[in-house]
Prior knowledge:
This protein is mostly helical. It has a domain at 64-102. Helices cover 25% and strands 0% of the residues. The protein has helices spanning 48-57, 68-82. The chain is flat and about 45 Å long. Mean pLDDT is 81; it is low at 1-5. This is Ectoine hydroxylase. Residues 1-25 are annotated as: Disordered. It comes from Flagellimonas olearia.
Amino acid sequence: MSAQNLTCPASIQTDPYPTRLHQHPDQPWYKRQEHTVKGRHLPGPLSQSQLDNFEQNGFLFERGFLHSDEVNALSNAMSELLNRNDYRNRSFTITEPDSQEI
């Protein structure tokens, strides 16, 4: 591949998603520029109601999807990861600006 075919990532001025920028966006909510649900006409495991809910809210909540034992195990594992000091100040770690919590 030649250098002519390479493209640079979008600049700060042209990024269509201002929430990805380093500075705080000037408004808390932005109108979506793209549909969140694609391929509605294709067969899949979700009902039309679930797709509509996801498109409106941006997430899908399924009561009982995980058993309480699974949730507790995942929560404990997450707590262990968040308390690992060797994860602080790493390129993959995101911390709160004021408290420095992971």
